[in-house]
Amino acid sequence: MTSTHGRLRRTPDSVDGGDVSLPAAVARWARTQGDKRAVAFVDHRVDPEGEVTELTWGELDARVDAVAAWCQKRAARGARAAVLVEQGTDYVVAFLGVLRAGLVAVPLFEPNPLPGHTDRLAAVLADCAPELVLTTSAHADAVESFLRERELAGPELGSVDVVATSGTGAGAEPVDLRAEDVAYLQYTSGSTRTPAGVVITHGNVVANAAQGYEAYECEQGETTSVCWLPLFHDMGLVVGLATPVLGGFTALLMDPIAFVLRPQRWLEEIAGVEGPVVSAAPNFAYGYVASRMTAEERAGLRLDHVVSLGDGSEPVMSKTLDTFYATFADNGLDRRVHRHTYGLAEAVVMVSVSPAGRAPREVTLDRVSLAAGRAVHAEQGTTLVSAGQGAGGQFVRIADPATGVALPEGHVGEIWSSGPNVGQGYWGKDDSHEVFEATLTDADGTVVDPGWGRAGWLRTGDLGVLLDGDLFIAGRIKDLIIVDGTNHYPQDIEYTAEQAHPAIRRHTVGAFSVPGETGELAVVVAERAKQFTADDLDHAEVAAAVKSAVSGAHALAIHDVVILGPGEVPRTSSGKIQRSACRARYAEGTLRAGS
After folding, report:
1. Where are the alpha helices (H) located in 196-255, listed in sequence order?
2. Please, which contacts does 375-383 make with residues 24 or more away whose CB atoms are closer than 8 Å?
3. What backbone phi and psi angles, to 5 degrees, belong to 548?
4. Which domains, ranges and CATH numbers included, belong to the chain?
């Protein structure tokens, strides 16, 4: 299946001209539109209104070349170089410089006090064993101390802000980057497994960036991408860097913390752009900004130039979209710009996307039938939002996860995909072929060709169902809550639980199961709303409300309800509730307020 939806396919000149890497695209734009703005970063740390740093294509190309030259003098082609740089233009320069040098980039983050980040950073660095670490002069001492404390000393450190602007030495030696060469390792968020480095080639990232360019209706030299997502995250890297670089249009970056502290900034930056705008965020962000922006702040906000708003990285909730578009309707924001995008790091980021020109299709399905593996339309039940069809010609099929047999439309199973963007495997993992080269068969035993020159299909680990060719996401296989032989999707439980009592903070609920003496037990964890103090909270009352609501809506008995303080529910780097971490901490007895 394809994602053209009857429209003419659009590609940037960098693709039509045969560029097979992002550094080659930068060089092209430096030659053809060198004085135009390539990337800008709005820094809210010192000035709440934002201080802008920007680079033209010519400046970006020169800095990338300087970093590439520095890397080439210190590491051989194919060596790993970790990027431990804070959000901003230096991150873009560092990442592209490593690629131009012929090295393998590992997009990460500087050491910071956010819960769980330093442990994950140490684990990733130990796994990929970089020869170089790029940071900035402001964080060089902290990075060096971190490496020494974690017994990771060995990589040579470089401050990209110094290297890129030193103006000394010869430029980088030209490297013939091929589509099959490894460009970077994209470490997974760890929402359902230990972080693993997905091997992404230059061909993979160029293919997915081109798919995003087409799907989000970008225009070379005209569009601006506004992105607050971290550049070390797969969606942030593609939306905030790869697609604008390949497409030759401006990337306007923000710091994720600036968004969290004041989400209004996201839409204010979008409103301040003159031309067409594209952006993307996880579903929670749409509800978050709608709840935080006052009528006074919305007054005069211009959003009618938004072309596409991508929504992915977690389940897309119809109620959230209702709230968001109702809130900003008077600002010119039309629901038809919303693009439900399904993907995962194993496919760079994008697998499917809802079509342009209309709001994502929604269906309401009978909850019991859906849990039993069949999609049956109903007046009341679970409402799912369509993730459209395969982006840029990708193939999407639904398979029985136990047998690898393709399932017909209307049957729930594991989402399998194939396309030029699918990665090559997990770094250093001998069993990668089980995920990246799975064999799909039809009911009669005939092997289904994955096409694209691939040896097999990508198993996503996600549950979905095809209806009239559109993909609907049902959840993750490992996240299914199975109690007394009945399947329950955690997002259904979570939505019911968050509506059960005003003391529960919206978009902070996680539902999972743990083993008990007689079978699986369902547990709900949530954060208390900020207007409730710990002393004000009547835990027994909230727990009773949650148990009653879930029992009535889903016929499921909740074993335990845990209420944590604001910001204490484990999340991934992109803001998703980390159910696996919740489950692990609950089993350890450490899932409690203030832990």
Report:
1. 202-215, 234-237, 243-247
2. 375/410, 375/411, 375/412, 375/465, 375/467, 375/472, 382/489, 382/492, 383/318
3. -65, -45
4. 22-256 (3.40.50.12780), 361-414+433-478 (2.30.38), 480-588 (3.30.300.30)
Rounded to whole angstroms, the Cα distance separating 16 from 381 reads: 46
CA distance 381 to 397: 25
The alpha carbon of 318 is separated from its chain's Cα centroid by a whole number of angstroms, namely: 19
Q: Could you report the per-residue pLDDT of 28-76, keeping only the tens digit for each? A: 999 999 999 999 999 998 888 889 999 999 999 999 999 999 999 999 9
- For residue 473, give the amino acid letter: I
Residue that wins the pLDDT comparison between 61 and 170: 61
Q: What is the pTM of this model?
A: 0.84
Long-range contacts of 368-373 (CB under 8 A, 24+ apart): 370/412, 370/465, 370/474, 370/489, 371/486, 371/487, 371/488, 371/489, 372/487, 373/411, 373/412, 373/413, 373/487
Nearest to 71 by CA among 131, 145, 10, 151: 131
Q: How far is CA 202 from the centre of its chain?
A: 19
Hey, what are 398's tokens?
A: 């639904």
